[in-house]
Amino acid sequence: MSLQELKMFDLRDVSGYRIGELENMNDLCKLGINCLENVKDVEEACSAKLCAKRRLTNLNLRWSNTYYSRTINLDENVLNNLQPPKCLRNLRIQRYMGARSAIWMNNINLIFNLEIIKLTECLECETLPPFGQLPFLKSLILDNMPKVKWLESKFNGNDKYRAFPLLEVLHIDRLEALEDWFEAGVAAEDGCLFPSLTELYLYDCPKLKESPSLPSKLKRLGIYKIGWTTLNFCSNSNPIPLESLKVSDCPNITSLPLADEISRLAALRDLVIRKCPNLISLGEMQTTNNCHIMLSNLSISDPSVLLMEPLRSTASLKELSIEYNDEVVSFPNEAEQWFLRVSSSLCELEFKKLKSLQSLPSFLESLSSLQILSIYDVPILRELPNLPPSLKRLSISGGIPMLRELPNLPPSLERLTISGGVPMLRELPNIPPSLESLEIWGRCHPELKERYRENGGFDRHKIAHIPFILMDT
Fold first, then answer.
1. In the chain, how many domains are there?
2. What is the pLDDT of residue 286?
3. Within a domain: residue 337?
4. Is 348 exposed, middle or buried (0-12, 13-18, 19+ CB in 10 A)?
5. Three-state DSSP state, 131
6. Contact partners, residue 465, CB within 8 Å, separation at least 6
7. Cβ atoms < 10 Å from Cβ of 206
8. Are residues 305 and 387 in the same domain?
C-alpha cells in the first residue's frame, strides 16, 4: 500500500531524513516538509521530484526559525526547485527568506488550480505573485510579510483586469509596508475588485489606503490597526450583505456611516467598535427612514457610542460587552434610557478590562431578560448594584481587588464563579436553592476558602446542596 499522506517530514542532515527520500513517493496527496534550511543546494532540492507527484493536492513548505544562519539566495534556489505539479490546490509556505517568489509561483499556468494559499513569516519577500489571475483561488492568507507594498503588481501590460474572480476569504496580517491593493497605475475594473469576497480581515497594516468601496458580497469585515478614517460602502442601492463588522485600534477612524446606510444594512448582526478614540459619528439618520439596526451582539470600548445613531434606537440586542477602556469612570445618565430600551432583549452583559471604572450602572436590576453577567478585571470597582431577578450566571474574575461583598443573589441563579483576583471578598451572601455550580479559585481571601472548605468549613452547610463545587485550597 503506497503512502498518500505525509503531514510533516522533518529534514535532517543524516541518512534517511534528507529530502531525496521523497523521490519515489509519487502517490502522495498531502505533503508537509519542515526544516528546509537543511537542504544544501539546488541538486538536493531537485531530488525530491515534487513535480512528478501527479496526485499531490496539498503542500506545506516550512523553514525553521533560523534566519541568521541562512542566505537569501539559497532559499530562493531551493524554492525554485520545489515546483509542485499543476494539480496542486492548497499551498502553504512559512519562514521563506527569499526576496523574490519562486519562478513557478509567477507562472499562472503552473499554479492554475490553486484554491488556498497561505504565506507566513516570509520576512524578506518584497513582491507577491499575480495571485489575482488565479481563476479558482478561494482563500488567501498573508501573515507577517513586512516588505510587501502591493497585493497585486502590474503585469502583461494590462492596466485593468478582473481581479481575484472567485476569492471568498482574504486575511492580511502584519504587512506593515502594504500601501495599496495594486501597484501605482494599476486598477481593477469598476466593481470587479474581489467580486466574490465574503470575508475580509485586515490586521496591522497602518499604511494601507482605504478601499474605494467594500466588495459587494462581503459578509464579514474586520479591521485592526489600520490607518483608515472611514468605511466606503458601495455607491449603488443594492442591499449590503454585511453580517459582522469589527473595527478595533484604529485611531484615525472618525466616522462609520452605519446610519446613512441603515436601510441597506438589514443583515448586520455583530458589531465591534473598540479603541477608536477619535470616532465622533456613526452617520446621519434620514428623517424619512424608519429602519432600525437589528444587532444581536455588540462590543464597544466607549459607552458614549451607545448614544450615537443608529445604536441609540436599537431594541434587539442580545449580547453587550463593554471592554478595553482605561478612561471611563462611570456611565452617562443618558445610558439608562438606552439600557431600558433593550431590557426585554438583552440576555448577556460583560464588563471587561475597565481600568478606571468605579461603579456599574445602578439600573442593572431593571434588565428583565438578563441571564449572564460577567465582570472581568475592573480593578477599582468597590461594589455591585442589585442584580436582576432573571440572572442565571454570574462571573467575577481577573482582578477586582477592592470588592468586599456581593449583593443578594437572585433566586434564579444557577452558576456562580469567583476567580483570579478578588482578594477582599470574605464571605458569600445568601445562596439560592437554584444554584447548581459554585467555583471559587485563584487569588481569593483565605477566609473565603476556609469558610466553605469541604472538611470542617463552618459555613460549608450553606453550600452543601450545590451539585457541583470547585474550590482550590
1. 2
2. 73
3. yes
4. middle
5. helix
6. 433, 435
7. 15
8. no
Name the DSSP class of 422. Answer: B
Q: Are residues 379 and 465 in the same domain?
A: yes
Q: In angstroms, what CA-CA distances link 321 with 236, 299, 300, 306, 332?
A: 33, 5, 6, 12, 16
Domain membership flag for residue 75: no
Task: Report pLDDT digits (tens) over 335-394.
Answer: 888 998 899 999 999 999 999 999 998 889 999 999 999 999 999 999 999 999 999 999
3-state helix, strand, coil in the chain (%, to 5): 15, 25, 60
Q: Which residue has the cell 496526485?
A: 55
Closest-CA residue to 97 (of 73, 129, 114): 73
Residues 440, 302 within the same domain = no
Range of the domain at 371: 318-473
Pick from 164, 105, 175: nearest CA to 133: 164
**Cα angle vertex 26, ends 24, 32, to 5°?**
95
CATH assignment at residue 461: 3.80.10.10
Q: Cell for 278?
A: 477619535
Which residue among 296, 312, 328 closes a domain?
A: 312
* Residue 308 neighbours by CB distance under 10 Å: 19
| Amino acid (1-letter code) at residue 221 | L
| Residue 3: closest CA among 34, 26, 21 | 26
**Residue 140 lies inside a defined structural domain of this protein:** no
Nearest to 194 by CA among 215, 179, 212: 215
Asked if residue 471 and residue 433 are part of one domain, the reply reads yes
Buried residues in 384-410 as b, exposed as e (16+ CB within 10 A)? beebbebbbbbbbbbbbeebeebeebb
**Does residue 142 have a pLDDT over 90?**
yes
Taking a C-beta distance cutoff of 8 angstroms, is the pair 152, 127 a contact? no
Residues 377 and 284 occupy one common structural domain: no
Q: Is the pLDDT of residue 66 over 50?
A: yes
Residue 248 sits in the same domain as residue 283: yes
User: CB pairs under 8 A, 24+ apart, for 292-297?
Assistant: 292/262, 292/316, 293/258, 293/262, 293/265, 293/268, 294/266, 294/268, 294/269, 295/268, 295/269, 295/270, 295/271, 296/269, 296/270, 297/269, 297/270, 297/271
pLDDT band for position 156 (cuts 50, 70, 90): very low
Show which of 312, 329, 357 is a domain's final residue. 312
Tell me, yes or no, whether 144 lies in a domain: no
Residues 327 and 442 both lie in one domain = yes
Q: Which residue has the higher pLDDT, 289 or 188?
A: 289
Percentage of the chain surpassing pLDDT 90?
A: 72
Same domain, 307 and 323: no
What's the residue count for the chain?
A: 473
Looking at residue 249, the DSSP 8-state letter turns out to be S
